[in-house]
């Protein structure tokens, strides 16, 4: 499955690296890309291992606001 999370504004490139690392290290995540200018996180994941809610919690646990989540 794929998830797109719309975040609050990202303020620095190190935010991008921090989010990508945390999400990619989460079990069941196959790939992740953070779009800095769009403040979005796109990831592919195995729904039998993790969920969209789990991934959103990873991001909010880092202190970032997840404003919207779309799952495809």
How would you characterize this protein structure?
The chain is globular and about 35 Å long. β2 (29-35) and β3 (40-45) form a beta hairpin. The relative contact order is 0.33. The protein has helices at 13-24, 52-61, and strands at 2-7, 29-35, 40-45, 66-71. The model has no long low-confidence stretch (mean pLDDT 96). Helices cover 31% and strands 35% of the residues. It starts with a strand and ends with a strand. By secondary structure, it is α+β, with helices and mostly antiparallel strands. Strands 2-3-1-4 form a four-stranded antiparallel β-sheet.
Summarize the structure.
This protein is an alpha+beta fold.
Largest sheet: 4 strands, antiparallel
Q: What is the global morphology?
A: globular
Q: How would you classify the quaternary structure? A: single chain
Return Rg in Å: 11 Å
Number of strands: 4
What is the averaged pLDDT score? 96
Strand order of the largest sheet: 2-3-1-4
Strand-and-helix sequence, N→C? Answer: EHEEHE
């Amino acid at each position: 499955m794929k998830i797109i999370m719309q975040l609050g504004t990202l303020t620095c490139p190190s935010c991008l690296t921090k989010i990508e690392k945390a999400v990619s290290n989460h079990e069941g995540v196959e790939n992740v890309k953070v779009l800095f200018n769009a403040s979005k996180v796109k990831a592919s994941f195995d729904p039998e291992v993790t969920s969209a809610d789990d991934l959103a919690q990873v991001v909010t646990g880092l202190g970032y606001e997840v404003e919207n989540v779309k799952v495809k």
